[in-house]
Structure prediction request, 119 residues.
Amino acid sequence: MTFNNERAIYLQLADRLCDEILAGVLAEEGRVPSVREYAALLQVNVNTAMKAYESLAREEIIFNRRGMGYFVSPGAKALIHQKRRRIFLEERVPEFVAEMRLLDISIADVREAIERSQA
Prediction:
């Protein structure tokens, strides 16, 4: 995994786990790789991976079964979807629109670019 220097690594790990949940790679109520397994897989410090898992547990996206490890919470997919949709609409769209204004890009230009990218 290639990490972005603009965001904490543990948050990027948490995002990756969420991506895997959204993609169906990790099923609701299914086991999540152990912290050590995930840290080794992504070649990060175990403490960094643990911080990502703790962050997701606080958000109730995953939960810990004592002695058994972490599992995906029921409803996690919907929770992630709702959170990311809110972030997209409230944070990214306004930034995108501001950039459109600066560059004098119209909605028609954007629509055309979207259609080209879907072809």
